[in-house]
Amino acid sequence: MCDSFAAPCVSRPHTSWAPCVSGPRAARLILLRAPQALLLAVRTCYNIYLVSRSEVNQTTAKATLTQMLNVVFQRMEADDVLVKVRKAPAPCAPPSPSAPLI
């Protein structure tokens, strides 16, 4: 049995983030729309889990949602580490013994 609410969202997720564009604008547009696509995927899995009467569908939606959120948090933590490394000040070199003291 198919849940009627999910069919439209699942069959057309690309229309929300991948309109027909090409060239230099395409990459920028995809980067701007990627968070919307992720949110749509999360909402869809969440709704399938809540509304579906099939235990298999609920389990699959829950597992998919868990995997998506784990990847998001892993990337967020990895980016946080990179930002901290970039912002860390360079260590000061000790003065050489031959340098005059002022």
Quick gist of this model?
The protein has helices spanning 6-11, 24-51, 55-87.
List keywords for this structure.
102 residues; mainly alpha
What does this structure look like?
With 102 residues, the chain is mostly helical. It has one domain. 66% of the residues lie in helices and 0% in strands. It has three helices and no strands. It has helices at 6-11, 24-51, 55-87. Helix 2 packs across helix 3 (55-87).
Helix and strand arrangement:
Elements: H1 6-11, H2 24-51, H3 55-87
Helix pairs in contact: 2-3
Number of domains: 1
- Which structural class best describes the helix and strand composition? mainly alpha
Distance between the termini: 84 Å
Helix content: 55-70%
Strand content: under 5%
Unreliable runs, pLDDT <50, ≥5 residues?
1-7
Number of strands: 0
Count of helical segments? 3
Q: What general outline do the C-alpha atoms trace?
A: elongated
Query: Strand count, sense and closure of the main sheet?
Result: none
Pattern of helices and strands:
HHH
Mean pLDDT: 76
